[in-house]
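Q: What does the assembled structure look like for these inputs?
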Amino acid sequence: MTEAAADLTRNQALVYGALEKTGTPMSAYTILDELRDDGFRAPLQVYRALDKLVEQGLVHRLESLNAFVACRHASCHRGGFIAFAICDTCGQVSEFSDDALSRRLSGWAGKHSFKPSKTTIEIRGLCAGCSNA
Amino acid sequence: MTEAAADLTRNQALVYGALEKTGTPMSAYTILDELRDDGFRAPLQVYRALDKLVEQGLVHRLESLNAFVACRHASCHRGGFIAFAICDTCGQVSEFSDDALSRRLSGWAGKHSFKPSKTTIEIRGLCAGCSNA
DNA sequence: ATCTATATGTTATAGCGTAACAAATCTGAT
DNA sequence: ATCAGATTTGTTACGCTATAACATATAGAT
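A:
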């Protein structure tokens, strides 16, 4: 577990740990099963921890998967929208942010007086490794 | 109903009609309730119709809402990724596509040998009208 | 000590989506 | 016309995702 996981509650730390250990997206229910031995009994225990972790930016929710993934570089994405490339074969997630992309979306929002609160950018497909295999 | 809805089966036409009439996103179950009087009984009847409509580009799935919306301009978005701005207050959806945006995402994919199959771009927030009110 | 805010535990339930199988309908070829 | 194959439809049952509501416990401040 990285130092990013400081000052988390027990449940939050367990959920974050499970996500980090796996490395690929996990559903809340998969996390729950993973943590039964640590005393987890109910989905809500997972969802509550996830809410906080997402709030803090330690975990991202992938809308197109209904799943969650540990953030790879919590400090790198200040300000810009984050995009995800998700391999449908191996589950690997690449996280990136692109200034031009962010400016483009902000630009549209500005021009239309739209006030963004949360933005989702997800590319599903095949990663380099999996499209060769 | 617009001319776009030609050569649809009865169920597809009913589902498309419900979405078009409402104008804002609807969940599959809301559509189901809307169509009970037309003989719909089960979710699958809705989901099957939605699958085909999405395939044909007449309807879009909004991942961040688990909902569906009738496409506003089926012919306008050839080639580029489509982005959605979704107002969390009134539910209004603005659909747009932006060449620079598309190039940016394609560029990232090319550089990383990632083969995109489906892309989701959704901005949640407040539309001009609702942020004034 | 007690108050307040936050975190946790637990049960039940709501909402989203599909598997599996049966029946009907539509198509085109002979 | 009718037959075979493909597509569409109907229906039941089930699994996965997420939250409401309420009870309990824990931590920090005064």
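Chain A has two domains: 3-70, 76-126.
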